[in-house]
Fold:
Amino acid sequence: MSLKNIHAVGPKRFGRIRDEMKNEDPNHEFPTTTQMFVRARKMTNGCIYIDTYDDTTKKLEKMKN
Structure:
């Protein structure tokens, strides 16, 4: 419970996700660390985090701008 912002990609390796994102990009560029962070923590199937991460979402918005 002490971990915050755990990833939600399961056993899939981050290198594999990075390559998938590169292939999805029209220019075939590698994703930024911010894009990787968001992709790895996106919940699927209607799942939600137990704790809210308002501070993290604010920081992500700041990094995007």
The radius of gyration is 13 Å.
